[in-house]
Each structure stands twice: as structure tokens, then as C-alpha cells.
Amino acid sequence: MIPRLDARTVAVGQELPPLVKGPITREDLKAYAAASGDPNPMHIDDEFARNAGHPGVFAHGMLSMGYLGQFLVEAAGVDGIRRWKTRFAKLTWPGDVITCRGRVTAVRDEGGSRLVDCDIWTENQQGERKLVGSAVLALPRA
Amino acid sequence: MPSKDMIGRVLSTGSATVTAEHVADFARALGDPNPLYVDAAAAGRGPFGTVVAPPTYPIAFMTQAMAGGMDTFLELGLNFMTLVHGEQEFEYTRPIQAGETLTLTGRIADIYEKTGSSGTLDFVVLETEARDAAGEPVFFSRNTLISRRT
Fold it and tell me: B61: domain CATH number?
């Protein structure tokens, strides 16, 4: 896969190519629970989630962060993320269509790399932001 | 409530070998089609000569590789019914590669509380460092857990 950000042209204010995932299904949550080894019934057992005061199961925060990881790798390559963080601001529900978005906030050079700071987030079909964070991407200088 | 005396305590340690199957299962659960994660033949011809892992794979690897932390974790006294993952941060020196053995050390990095209109929230920050067979750092994870006192 060819990274879509170009070290020669990347600029502050530029948007990263968005990535759309979902709609999220209960099957997606079961599959993520199994693959990640997360035993929390909050994401797979509707009755458990209702007893905890929720309308039903909700998505693992790390499932959405995984979508953001795909989004960043498609932008910068598998070795293009230096560090990143997200805050799990709002819950993501079955049925949500999640769009991963990001915007470049700074560009600087360090050694052989062009470092690209980005604000990143996920939003649902109503534009409600769910995960909010930042990333430092490292692109090889051409 | 968590005691600040536990800051700095090693929570758990472990060591495991990254397998291409575990990485591919994790990538498929994310619906991520990157051939470097799921196609061993394509990854073998790729820049690393082997399957590499997606950026959030450390979460699954930590679950698989680390043991011995449950007693300490219970000692934190968090309210499990209200426990949520508040923040997550990763740093990498390079991609994780299938076939390599990583050694993990997890520590309690910080404990603090915030009181607001909905009551008191306890924050516990867990930091995990992964090193390869040569002792070089590979990734770092910082996980902030939040639980509301009831």
C-alpha cells in the first residue's frame, strides 16, 4: 500500500483522506472481543449492559481506535506512526457509521524524517465526535 | 479507592512470541485488509520480510502475554461496574513483527482523583513497555482507566 501523505507537499491545515467504517454490528463487537481477548460483557451481552444502566451493548473504545489506526497507516504507512493518543469522549453504538478524520496542525523536520502533527477523531453519521486525539506521523524525506 | 502508595508498582510482566495468525485474526476483527497484516506471502515480499502488526495490536498482545497482575489490580480497589477506558496512548520505535519475542513490563504510573458534579472519579494510569530479544524498546502503551465512586 502506498501512503497517501506526501512528505514534499504536506501542509498545515491539510485534511487526511477520511476512512468510513461500519455500520457497526453486534457481530463486529463479538469478533473484536474474541480477537483482542477482552472479556468485558458490556460489549457483547445486552442484558448485562442494560443492568449497568445503558440501552444495550456499546462498542469497545479500542475497536474505534483500531479504525483510527487503519486510517493513520493508510495516510503514513505501517512504519509512519511515531506516537498517538485518543480520549474516549463518547460511546459508539451498534448501527453507528464511523468516519475517521484528521487535520495537519504542524510540520517539522527531524533527522531524515518529516514529522507531521495531526488532530484526529472519529465521528458518527450525525457528526458527533466519539474519539478525539492527536498523532505524530513520520514521513521519510524525499 | 486506589492508594497513591501504589504508584510505581510493577503491575504485571510477561513475554510471548508474536504469531502471524494472532495478528491476522486481530486485523480481520478490525476489518483492516492491509496485506502486510493478513497475507504472509505478500508480507514476506514487503518492506519487513514478514507480517507486521496493526498499531493497536499491542492491546491484544498485552492481554495474551501478561500475567500475574490481577491481585495488584484488585488491590487498586476500582469500581468495576463503572470502570471505563478513558484514554489510550501508544509510542513505537518500529512495527511489531511476526516471529519475534517481546518482553513486557507494566507499571502503575499514576493515580489521581477528580471531583465534579457527578461525584468523584478515580484515575489510574498504567504504562507498559515492550522490549525485543536484544533489549531494545519496541512500543510503549499508556492506558488511563477511570472509575466513578458509588
Answer: 3.10.129.10
Q: What is the ipTM of this complex?
A: 0.96
In this structure, are residues B92 and B10 in contact, taking their beta carbons and an 8 Å threshold?
A: no
The dihedral formed by the CA atoms of A94, A96, A99 and A100, expressed in degrees to the nearest 10 = -40
In this structure, what C-alpha cell is assigned to residue A141?
524525506
**Beta-carbon separation of A87 and B87 below 8 A:** yes
Report pLDDT digits (tens) over B107-132.
Answer: 999 999 999 888 999 999 999 999 99
Mutate to test the interface with A, among B32, B78, B83 (most CBs of A within 10 A): B32
On whether residue B35 sits in a domain, the answer given is no
pTM over 0.90: yes
- Domain enclosing residue B78, as ranges: 4-16+55-148
- Which residues on chain A are in Cβ contact (under 8 Å) with B88? 61-62, 65, 85-86, 88
∠ CA A118-A73-A61, nearest 5°, is 75
> Residue A86 belongs to what domain range?
19-140
The 8-class DSSP code of residue A41 comes to G
Q: Could you read off the pLDDT of A39-97 as tens digits, one per residue? A: 889 999 999 999 989 999 999 999 999 999 999 999 999 999 999 999 999 999 999 99
Number of separate domains in chain B: 1
Domain annotation covers residue B37 = no
Answer whether residue A28 is part of any domain.
yes
**How confident is chain B (150 residues) per 10-residue block, as mean pLDDT?**
90 94 98 97 94 97 82 82 91 98 96 92 96 98 92
Q: How far is A121 from chain B (nearest CA, A)?
A: 13
Assess contact for A57 and A110: CB atoms under 8 A: no
CA of B3 vs chain A CAs: smallest distance (Å):
24
Whether A116 maps to a domain, the answer reads yes
